[in-house]
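Q: Give me the 3D complex with zinc ion.
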Amino acid sequence: MQLYKNQPLRIHNSLTGKKELFKPINEGHVGMYVCGPTVYSNVHLGNCRTFMSFDMIFRYFKHLGYKVRYVRNITDAGHLENDADEGEDKIAKKAKLEQIEPMEVVQRYTVDFHNTLQQFNLLPPSIEPTATGHIIEQIEIIKEILEKGLAYEVNGSVYFDVVKFNEDHDYGKLSGRKLEDMITNTRELTAQDEKRNPQDFALWKKAEPQHIMRWPSPWGDGFPGWHLECTAMSTKYLGETFDIHGGGMDLKFPHHECEIAQAEASTGKSPVNYWMHANMLTLNGRKMSKSTDNNIYPSEIFSGDNNILSKPYTPAVVRFFMMQAHYTSILDLSDEALQASEKGYNRLMEALESVDGLKTGDSSDFDVLAWKQKCYDAMNDDFNTPILIAQLFEGVKHINLIKENKESISKEDKDILANTLKTFVYDVLGIENQSLAKDDSNTLSGVVQLLIDIRNEARANKDFATSDKIRDELLALGIQLKDGKEGTTFSIN
Ligand code: AMP
Ligand code: ZN
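A: Here is the predicted complex, encoded as structure tokens.
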């Protein structure tokens, strides 16, 4: 395989707000951590967008020849209903509601998550660790932060001391917030509050007697704070400092800000070189979210069973729609936008199906190598998939001109054109050709229906030799005709 590692790749780093040249910590290797789902409900299309964006990034690094360790966790404990360390655990709440074990909730929605991502052709990550599988590691980090004097224990819970941490560090540097402003804008603590400052966050929460998800710790039975699992699992599998940390934009604060604080407090090192944030999928101009009804599920898109949709769309069309927007841009879902994507997708697939059979000549009217480099330039500019897709359509334009004998291409250039197009569409963007199978089955049904009509005419004319011949020969091909009251139907084995 050809290596493209030496191509200069620039990444928008949310920590600096700038596009920076990507330099891996270990030559030829990339360590990437992406926050996974909290598995208490089915994933909506917004969640899928974020995971698809990072799948495209994972695929491009692999294509460039890097050895990538991609860690994406499953949050199966510790995520409370609101970010202020209050309310019930989301999974425990669902378990109570459905009268099943929390781990049954986790299993059900982890399976849904995997099935959904597989339909969208996402590659599995290299490691998919769970929060409950890393309680020991999380307790160890809490001990280290306590030893550094940057956390305190109150009544079986342990909190991170943000104000103390901020004396020597910069809490808020990722989200661009200043601690002083946060302090001015928050309510006073009440007597019942255990925290020293409202900005402090839980590293460990004491489990009340009714709390079912609990583990023993040096501070008594309890459960870890949500932010801690990602620090424990990312540093365990990728090291104290690793290349890339990703997630949706909504996780920047407080989740990722707290991850930075925990890691810096425990190791003294900055945990991540490039922070990457994927932007939101919106519906009716508002963020899709699990906790409101403003969302749409993948199954609704595939069946067309939602009143905003005029028809069903295949996973490949939806993926193409997502890839037409840059991962850092907001993308609004609508039926019109999906219809437009479907048209574009079909044009792209037609070109892919015809490119190998193009007639070749002695020379090329199209500078294929310059075009190929432009495809790489688009991806090297912070994974700019809309620009890449525009370039791919530039390739499609030439394919069509060659088909119409208005341009010519050499054999060598045709092979480069075909390989580049297939590589970017199938391997990098992860877009499958699902139109082929569908078109084939539509064509087949049409042909069988035509034969049924001819057979009916033959029978009406008492030409039983022809009607039997059609029935028997179709059967020999594995197509069975069934005559019923409603007419003739068929099944294909
Ligand atoms: P959650 O399971 O809620 O923790 O979310 C899983 C991932 O989906 C996180 O990276 C979120 O940032 C991301 N996410 C949530 N809502 C949306 C949305 N509307 N558009 C894109 N990503 C989202
Ligand atoms: Zn996380």
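A quick observation: The chain has three domains: 18-278, 282-428, 438-492.
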